[in-house]
């Protein structure tokens, strides 16, 4: 089966001359959650932005559904970009403070009117019902539809960002530290929600975090990034294997306290 996403030898050198991503390759299959863990500054967000084509890569190739994103014009990228959705660390920044929740949730569906996910088939023609269904899918009551972001908690805002990300049934969702700004209790709730949605909707995730336990909870395959490179890659069940890289062992030790 063809890879959903295939990135080969990605390099990113910033204008400052700093090489943030140092030739990494990654493949993600349909329905798979790949975890990416690494300390702050290791290049995780840079790689995420490169894969999302928000940042121009210095070298390498990116294929989504076998289509070469690195060769596309801006216009072509705009057409295909919705296939990849993203959820970032700061949900407050992801939502327009002047727009009601319904308008943020419906943003992608309003733009891509021809897209109709299976789970919205019966309500696609009815904007309010669509938004209501999406909020329901992320565990939020419909009374929030006409509220503004500042009236919601951090966890609720992140739920709205997730609702928007799943709204057009994307091929891949890149989650860059989606729980890092939340308290520990809310982190657990959001991780559980993400896991349920992934199973239910057969979503593909690239889940990025500096927190190994979160990555382990959600991912089937785990990549460890350090100084812009992948230094370890393993299946979830092999986390305690002797074959792990010393750095991975150090991360494990850190969380075992
Ligand atoms: N826009 C930028 N310009 C120059 N350097 C950057 C930029 N963004 C990030 N960096 C640098 O690239 C490195 C990796 O950053 P980042 O990808 O944000 O890491 P992470 O997400 O793992 O914390 C860091 O040294 C950071 O300072
Ligand atoms: Mg980051």
UniProtKB/TrEMBL annotation:
<protein>
    <submittedName>
        <fullName>Peptide ABC transporter ATP-binding protein</fullName>
    </submittedName>
</protein>
<dbReference type="InterPro" id="IPR050319">
    <property type="entry name" value="ABC_transp_ATP-bind"/>
</dbReference>
<keyword id="KW-0067">ATP-binding</keyword>
<feature type="domain" description="ABC transporter">
    <location>
        <begin position="5"/>
        <end position="252"/>
    </location>
</feature>
<keyword id="KW-0813">Transport</keyword>
<dbReference type="GO" id="GO:0016887">
    <property type="term" value="F:ATP hydrolysis activity"/>
</dbReference>
<keyword id="KW-0547">Nucleotide-binding</keyword>
<dbReference type="InterPro" id="IPR027417">
    <property type="entry name" value="P-loop_NTPase"/>
</dbReference>
<dbReference type="InterPro" id="IPR003593">
    <property type="entry name" value="AAA+_ATPase"/>
</dbReference>
<dbReference type="InterPro" id="IPR003439">
    <property type="entry name" value="ABC_transporter-like_ATP-bd"/>
</dbReference>
<dbReference type="InterPro" id="IPR017871">
    <property type="entry name" value="ABC_transporter-like_CS"/>
</dbReference>
<dbReference type="GO" id="GO:0055085">
    <property type="term" value="P:transmembrane transport"/>
</dbReference>
<comment type="similarity">
    <text>Belongs to the ABC transporter superfamily.</text>
</comment>
<dbReference type="Pfam" id="PF00005">
    <property type="entry name" value="ABC_tran"/>
</dbReference>
<dbReference type="GO" id="GO:0005524">
    <property type="term" value="F:ATP binding"/>
</dbReference>
């Amino acid at each position: 089966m063809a890879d959903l996403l295939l990135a080969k030898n990605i390099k990113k050198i910033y204008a400052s001359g700093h090489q943030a991503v140092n030739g990494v390759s990654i493949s993600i299959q349909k329905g798979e959650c790949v975890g990416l863990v690494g300390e702050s500054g290791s290049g995780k967000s840079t790689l995420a932005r490169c894969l999302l084509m928000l940042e121009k890569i210095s070298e390498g190739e990116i294929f989504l559904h076998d289509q070469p994103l690195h060769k596309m014009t801006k216009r072509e990228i705009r057409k295909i970009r919705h296939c990849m959705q993203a959820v970032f660390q700061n949900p407050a920044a992801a939502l327009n403070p002047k727009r009601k929740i319904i308008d943020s949730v419906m943003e992608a569906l309003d733009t891509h009117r021809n897209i109709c996910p299976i789970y919205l088939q019966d309500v696609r023609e009815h904007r309010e019902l669509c938004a209501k269904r999406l909020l329901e899918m992320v565990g939020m009551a419909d009374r929030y539809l006409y509220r503004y972001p500042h009236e919601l908690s951090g966890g609720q805002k992140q739920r709205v960002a997730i609702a928007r990300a799943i709204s057009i049934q994307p091929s891949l969702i890149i989650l860059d530290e989606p729980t890092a700004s939340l308290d520990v209790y809310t982190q657990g709730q959001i991780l559980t929600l993400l896991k349920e949605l992934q199973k239910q909707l057969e979503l593909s995730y690239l889940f990025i975090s500096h927190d190994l336990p979160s990555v382990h909870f959600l991912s089937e395959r785990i990549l460890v990034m350090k100084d812009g490179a992948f230094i370890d890659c393993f299946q979830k069940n092999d986390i305690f294997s002797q074959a792990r890289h010393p750095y991975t062992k150090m991360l494990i030790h850190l969380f075992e306290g």
